[in-house]
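Reminder: ligand-aware prediction takes two inputs, not one.
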Amino acid sequence: MFAQFGPAGNPDAFYEAGFKASADMPEWLASLKLGAYEYQCSRGVNVRQPTAELVGEQAKRYGIKLSIHAPYYISLATEDETIAANTQRHFLRSLEVAQWMGAERIVFHIGGPGKGNDRRQAMERAKRLFARVLEQVDRQGLTGPLLLPETMGKQNQLGSLDEVLELCKMSAYVRPAVDFGHLHAVSGGGCTTSEEFAAVFDKIAGALGKEAAQNLHIHFSRIEFTKAGEKRHWTLADPFGPPHEPLLAVIAERRYTPRIISESAGTQAQDAKTMQDFYRALLK
Ligand SMILES: [Zn+2]
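Here is what comes back for the chain with zinc ion:
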């Protein structure tokens, strides 16, 4: 088993090659010898069943592992009943699409801490609403795909590694999505050395067990940041951190098999390929 690499969404090169439909992505990715694709529902779940099924069939045919990015509008710590109801709906609709596509992972953002900015209270609210989501998922028979809270890049968002791990402990169907660009940004440059990357895996293994660290879902991009955290995603060619080499060195050395999604701005497939080539060379 090897680590799998692929893009978040459709890169510029895909459109420049004359393609438009996401259903053409799996074949295009296979031609680049990539093995993963994160389908974006980040601006809302608008995909229709036949399209979702076609993406899924093509992914199966070309051996591409599928994940879905759920809407950015999810807000688990909200105190507003309408937003809470919408949040539940975003989860259920994402799970429905995952079923149509055969995607086994759904990445989501926990959301902001809300009024008062008290993170502890906000996390308690987030856990209460998330428990309701998990209950409803169970009741509607949608259990199956993993739900992955993502580590976030801004100080004013919930989603530190500790907060993500706290949600993961609520169910066997919840696993972390670690965005190393975000961790780097929010810590003011704290993901640079292989020791720093290794410490993230060790913390996950300590909290959730070895297997969770071994098969981690990873987002990666170079990222520009300020005191407030994430400012902008760049590409591997740009002069920002985090570096991918020490991360891939830890993964190769420990024989981990994560799924690594490149979130580079526009060059996400090419950059996924660059990382894959580097990783494969390390294994030799
Ligand atoms: Zn995200």
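Strands lie at 4-7, 36-40, 65-69, 105-108, 146-149, 177-179, 217-220, 223-226, 229-233, 259-262. The domain at 4-283 is CATH 3.20.20.150 (TIM Barrel). We will return to this case in the review session.
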